[in-house]
Amino acid sequence: MRCSYIRLLVNDYEACFRFYADVLKLPVLWGDENSRYAEFDVQSRTRLAINQREVMAEALETDTADPELPHQDRFAVIFEVDDVDESAAKLVADGARLVMEPRDWTAWGIRAAHFRDPDGYLLEINCPLIPVPADDRDV
Hints:
By secondary structure, the chain is of the alpha+beta class. It contains 3 helices and 8 strands, in the order βαβββαβαβββ. The chain has one domain: 2,3-Dihydroxybiphenyl 1,2-Dioxygenase, domain 1. The protein has helices at residues 13-23, 53-59, 84-93; strands spanning 2-10, 28-30, 37-40, 47-52, 75-80, 97-105, 110-116, 122-128. A hairpin with a 6-residue loop joins β2 and β3 (37-40). The longest helix has 11 residues, at 13-23. It is globular and about 45 Å long. The two termini are 14 Å apart. InterPro entries: Glyas_Bleomycin-R_OHBP_Dase (IPR029068), Glyas_Fos-R_dOase_dom (IPR004360), VOC_core (IPR037523). This is Catechol 2,3-dioxygenase-like lactoylglutathione lyase family enzyme. It comes from Nocardiopsis metallicus. Keywords: Dioxygenase, Lyase, Oxidoreductase.
């Protein structure tokens, strides 16, 4: 399992995009001010991404005002795995709390499953729907 992204789930996507792109001057790898999702190069194998908070809440069928998680999903830690179904089954068997079973997110180009750690933080495991040849992966 490789930590591939830290994803900030933001309320004001446009302001955050401008902050990371224009103030911090991080190179934009994907997305723009209106895309509701963007990735930035932070000179690491792990990338920084921002996502409109409601997009993740809708995708996971959760309510951002959940009283049990008053600060729910302000960020997510994303791990890339070789096989989402196998990894998810092992995580569940080992006691991880499943939020969303493995499924294809064709609009995102990934197969993913979502979990929560004991403190309620959102974790995602994913792999590309179209496998990336080992020679083309970031080193």
